[in-house]
Amino acid sequence: MDPELRREIIVDHYQNPINKGLIIDDTYLKANTNNESCIDNITVMAKIEDGRFMDIRFDGEACAISTSATSIMIHLCLNKTVEEVEELMAEYEKMLNEEEYQQEKLNELIVYEDIYKQPNRKKCAFLPFDSLKKIIKQYKERGQ
Q1: Longest Cα pair distance anywhere in the chain, in angstroms?
Q2: CA dihedral 122, 29, 109, 4 (to 10 degrees)
Q3: Cα separation of 66 and 41, whole Å?
Q4: Residue 111: CB atoms within 10 Å
Q5: First vs last Cα of the chain: how many Å apart?
Q6: Domain that holds residue 118
Q7: Which of 31, 71, 83, 112 is least crowded, fewest Cβ atoms below 10 Å from its Cβ?
Q8: How many beta carbons lie within 10 A of that of residue 139, not counting itself?
């Protein structure tokens, strides 16, 4: 990917993140994740109905990588099924871990394809998905 386009996507999602701000609604599942090695500390909340992500929101303090990754994650996961989101997470995790992955499934998340060159930033890039994994676990444990 062109480095300038990569930078533009990351900066845009950092400065104008999608669905930033939590709401009070007991029908949402919520999870917090932080990165012990930096300031990143985000809470993600999601409304899942009939196995589909109807809404995802977040708030917290995080670096540009973590904030932009959260915003892109929300953009890509809204209106997707739990299974589709799990597939996306698996491909994204493979990419971050320098394993073989399906690039076409990642859409804008491909901007982090070189993050492995900065190992300390991998956690920043995956942090929102850690929260989403916790939310999916809660959803499945409730038997929904």
Answers
A1: 45
A2: -90
A3: 9
A4: 23
A5: 39
A6: 3-141
A7: 83
A8: 16
